[in-house]
Amino acid sequence: MKLLYRLLKQDPNSREGVVLTTSALGIAVNLLLAGLKVAVGAAVSSIAVVSEGVNNAADSATSLLTIVGTKLSGRRPNKKHPFGFGRIEYLTSLVIAVFILVTGLELFISSVKLIFEPAGLSVSISTMLLIAVSALVKLALGTYTVRMGKKVGSGSLVAVGTDCRSDSVISVVTILSAAVWLIFRFSVDAYAGIITSAFILKAGFDILRDTASDLLGKAAEKDLADALYREIRAVPVVLNAADMMLHNYGPDAYSGSVNIEVDHEKTIGEVYEAIHALQLRIMHEYGVTMVFGMYAVDSDHEEVRRIRADIASYVRANEHIVSYHALYLTPDFKQIYCDFVVDYELKDWDGLKADFGDYMGRLYPESELVLTIETEFV
Hints:
Helix content: 55-70%
CATH class of the largest domain: Mainly Alpha
Radius of gyration: 29 Å
Structural class: alpha/beta
Strand order of the largest sheet: 1-2-3
Low-confidence stretches: none
Number of helices: 11
Shape: elongated
Distance between the termini: 37 Å
CATH topology of the largest domain: Alpha-lytic protease prodomain-like
CATH architecture of the largest domain: Up-down Bundle
Number of domains: 2
Number of strands: 6
Largest sheet: 3 strands, mixed
CATH superfamily of the largest domain: Cation efflux protein transmembrane domain
């Protein structure tokens, strides 16, 4: 691989260098396998072997699309697209998914036709050895491609690698088909083609589902969110953090917001100095542009501590409440503000609000409760 990096003049430590070089390796390997399989399959009149060759050629095309998508996604932001072009990689994955689905559908149709219009089959040990070697090569290539894709956060590369690994299973099906012919002189080639097409279609649907999730706006990676929460809560002026939102504009491009609780006795200058340093650190270390909302909290007042303890007791007793935050009392104690974070299993939000209202009403009849219920976005 070091030689390939040098030949392509790519940096092995850069995301683009890894994606482009890994994709180029995939193109070279798949084209070589495609040529061999199509030639051998045509010689022995095996649609299963030819279909494997066609699938290898399709894999080369998907690797090429990954290169194109990576290059386009690296363009600088402009007036119309101030967040950059990172999401082009998701569109690339979408095209790859459609490409794989079309390939699988065509193979399925050809295989069904073969059931009603069977053709002669000629299989040799050398053909089976070729497919077996191909399966091992594809397994190694797919595993490496997926590993590199996860390492640099490239969904397109992971999609190509996953499809590549599934080809190993397809090759096993083809070998079994050939073995049945050699032993029993009974052709199951058409059925093997149908099974092969099922694997191809499943890979295409899986990639399509994952890509659609990215485009719709799925929850951010839990590891990233947890790391950011730890970073934020470690700042001395921050008492708590909640309501984090992370918006993805590409594999390594996030903008986000989070609400933090700060001691009400801290000056604006003290809070600004700490949060500004935190904001820069998050940007440089995590690639996230973070905006902060703030709540001033009086954690020393005896009444506040008592109310906090009562709310914590209620939260512990309710399995659907993940956490609470943003506790605020007006100076005259006439209103109590509080936010609940609930899980997605809770359906009756109005029932929870009414029940908690009754609970607080019994404890603090003189105060009005203002409760906000929300779910986590990360």
